[in-house]
Amino acid sequence: xxxxxxxxxxxxxxxxxxxxxxxxxxxxxxxxxxxxxxxxxxxxxxxxxxxxxxxxxxxxxxxxxxxxxxxxxxxxxxxxx
Length: 81
Prior knowledge:
Number of strands: 4
Strand content: 15-25%
Shape: globular
Helix content: 10-25%
Largest sheet: 4 strands, parallel
Distance between the termini: 45 Å
Order of helices and strands: EHEHEE
Number of helices: 2
């Protein structure tokens, strides 16, 4: 049985990497990241069923076993406070 995993503000998908390194079977349901380079990295290295570019848009989400959301890295954020 595979664990159904998803993340928002995915970055490099570190939790997904950790699960795979532990030998835990994972079904990568979705990821999202607003940064186009992060999305390109996710597509190049993982196979999410869906890749969102904006987590603030309403979407129908599947049932998950693990959901991870990382807050944006402030030092790299496009938002100016």
